[in-house]
Write a structure and sequence with these properties.
alpha+beta, two-stranded antiparallel ribbon
Length: 92
């Protein structure tokens, strides 16, 4: 357990540990941070590609769900599923 901060200041001394990972304690966990990074990176890349093709999205919202499974004596993320909700004029 411990605290995580980012250089940008977006995260300041956020708690993480067993309780924030597997129970309902306030704070974050590595899987949540990886999911947020995956979703935001995908959304930024998609927006860039759409704009390059001449489309301006009015909404791009991506949700990531990661799956944490036990492997031997440790754990691993075996899947990250992205769900996109989008409104892009000119695209069905």
């Amino acid at each position: 357990r411990g605290f995580v901060s980012t250089r940008s200041g977006v995260l300041q001394e956020q708690r993480y540990g067993f309780g924030t990972r597997f129970e309902d304690e306030p704070g974050t966990n590595p899987e949540e941070l990886l999911a947020a990074a995956h979703a935001s990176c995908f959304t930024m890349a998609l927006a860039f590609q759409l704009q390059g093709a001449g489309f301006t999205p009015t909404e791009l919202a991506t949700e990531a769900a990661v799956s944490l499974v036990q492997e031997g004596e440790g754990f691993k993320i075996d899947r990250s599923t992205l769900t996109l909700t989008a409104d892009v004029p000119g695209i069905d």
